[in-house]
Give the backbone structure.
Amino acid sequence: MTARILSGKEIAKDIRKDLKAEIEELKAKHGITPGLAVVLVGEDPASQVYVRSKVKTCERLGVNSIEHRFDKDYPESDLLALIDEMNGDDSIHGILVQLPLPKHIDEEKVLIRIRPDKDVDGFHPTNVGKMLVGKPDFLPCTPHGCQQILMRSGIETEGKEVVIVGRSNIVGKPLAAILVQKAKGANATVTICHTRTKNMAEHTRRADILIVAAGVPKAVTGDMVKEGVVVIDVGVNRIGKTESGKDKLCGDVDFDTVREKAAAITPVPGGVGPMTITMLMMNTVRAAKLRIKQ
């Protein structure tokens, strides 16, 4: 079996076309340009790449991008004061503080400080609660991106066995909450596996849809999946350099062995990554629209 490649890059491109039209309508009818403020503290290489991609995507879509960059010693008190300032700025519809933060900054304190109606990452407890009861304003970007890949690729989730490897607050747990909802693109039976799961392969072999966000390179191999499985690989791991000096990337799934048994699989890169940024843009546009209704 040769797996169908689920290109998040192509799906994201289609979504961005629709978003661009929505943004132009907001400007024409309401005089509103969606604004996204991104804060980066420190010099984490992956975070820097991600922030650059966000800024470029904003420019392409016509979203006003405000970027704040600080060194790793930036005080927590100053960061909280900046968030307060952005909370009160009507030109900013979405606020995103790039994680991880340096150890001297309390991430939970920072996330709670962002106004829920500007929390376009979907991490504020208010937005997490709305997600759990099935009435979200904003869904977390990476889990929502995974769901959109499945829906827009014509892959049915209703009644399917979905196994998620990873229980982070950023991907695993919110994705499980999204996929168990009584809603389109959900209605799945969900199992979460993690570092304390015994006999993980027994669970992964049962999956109709396997979503891997373990943070471990090639953690899932071909012998751990059944024939015909659909695989969403969330992981992005740097495993050295190419001959040209670029980062060599791999996912949390051993692509070469798993694709021999899978019906469909996302690549790394070009799978979930482009969807995460696009869902951030979707949330920013939604935040601007919600402001009109206030």
Remarks:
- The radius of gyration is 19 Å.
- The CA atoms of residues 39 and 82 lie 9 Å apart.
- The first strand starts at residue 4 and ends at 5.
